[in-house]
Amino acid sequence: MQILEAKNIRLRAVEPSDLKLLYKWENDSSIWEVSHTLKPFSLFVLKQYLESSHLDIFETKQLRLVIELKDSGKPIGLIDLFDFDPFHQRAGIGILINDKDSKNKGFASEALDILCSYAFNTLQVHQLYCNITATNEISLRLFQNNGFEIMGNKKDWIRTKDGWKDEYSLQKINLQNP
């Protein structure tokens, strides 16, 4: 088995051919609240991002990978490491399963497990963290079931059209790398 593969999915680098897919997913305003996005991305900006995506995580401080089904090669989502800090050995992690037919099938859990293993064993990260609104029960369950613990609650942290929401900070410590 390859390092970025599991039973049903693989994580792969973002390719130039993913431009229209990224454009569609990044500009889906229904997920802007969780991605902290306030405006659409242009094709031009996304093309520039793709042109620099070959750069090393130590240089860009981020890594975005496409989640695809192994059997068909169909892209179903994205997973990211961001705010990579090699000195403090930590990074943020985010995930999106955008393909509606692929939700609630365990693919997000597989992808999260793969990326945590890669971050801990290859990048030698000591800790991973994420921030999830208190009302996002699906994401909270996903991360908690994969070993992340709630470390704090930021009151009224996220402003939405429906009012203010609390945001939990979660973290997972690499116990193999003290």
Automatic annotation (TrEMBL):
Domain N-acetyltransferase span(s) in chain numbering: 9-171
Organism annotation: Paralabilibaculum antarcticum
Protein name per Swiss-Prot or TrEMBL: GNAT family N-acetyltransferase
Coiled-coil stretches noted in the UniProt entry, renumbered to this chain: none
Family matches, as Gene3D superfamilies: 3.40.630.30
PROSITE patterns in the cross-refs: GNAT
Signal sequence region: none
InterPro entries: Acyl_CoA_acyltransferase, GNAT_dom
One Pfam short name: Acetyltransf_3
Domain of life where this protein originates: Bacteria
